[in-house]
Specification:
The protein is elongated. Helix 1 packs antiparallel against helix 4. The longest helix is centred in the middle third of the chain and has 34 residues. It is an alpha+beta fold. Helices cover 65% and strands 12% of the residues. The chain has a single domain, classed as Butyryl-CoA Dehydrogenase, subunit A, domain 3. It is built from four helices and five strands, in the order H-E-E-E-E-H-H-E-H. This is Epithelial membrane protein 1. It comes from Motacilla alba (White wagtail). It is a multi-pass membrane protein.
Length: 161
């Protein structure tokens, strides 16, 4: 049981780190141009230097929503991690980690909403570039989506023995 708890804890920490990286780094979409590689993220457009991400007025609300939900997912994931540690030491024997699992599933839902909006609105569009494709941050966000769902379900099922 101790090995299972340690494994879940390590995967949870890895998920938090990957969420930070995918939110902060600017490699959600990558394209090529005559100057070199162009990458866009949630915040900046980077070529050789990074500048403010040019967004049309109709896509601005969608980008703000993606930014907000990714930040919320980080917050909920960290809160779930703190709750897990608190419940690990204060929960009675035989009880389940319901609160931790519920908060982690809220994190999962925030990631789902953010990545879905980004997929619907911004996939295949990199300004001033050709041959756009997804970058590693987009892929990390989907990996975090899977990990947070698995961790949330495991927390709901897991009993403290």
């Amino acid at each position: 049981m101790l090995v299972l708890l340690a494994g879940i804890f390590v995967v949870h920490i890895a998920t938090v780190i990957m969420l930070f990286v995918s939110t902060i780094a600017n490699v959600w979409m990558v394209g090529s141009s005559n100057v070199g590689t162009i990458s866009t993220g949630l915040w900046l457009l980077c070529n050789k230097t990074c500048t403010q991400l040019p967004v049309s007025s109709r896509d601005e609300a969608a980008l703000k929503a993606v930014q907000a939900f990714m930040i919320l997912s980080i917050i909920f994931s960290v809160v779930a991690l703190v709750l897990f540690v608190i419940q690990l030491f204060t929960l009675e024997k035989g009880k389940r980690f319901y609160m931790t699992g519920a908060v982690m599933l809220v994190c999962w839902m925030c990631i789902l909403i953010a990545v879905s909006i980004y997929t619907a609105r911004f996939t295949g569009t990199v300004v001033y570039s050709t041959n756009p494709h997804h970058g590693y941050c987009f892929i990390l966000a989907w990996i975090c989506f899977c990990f947070s769902f698995i961790i949330g379900i495991l927390y709901l099922v897991l009993r403290k023995k």
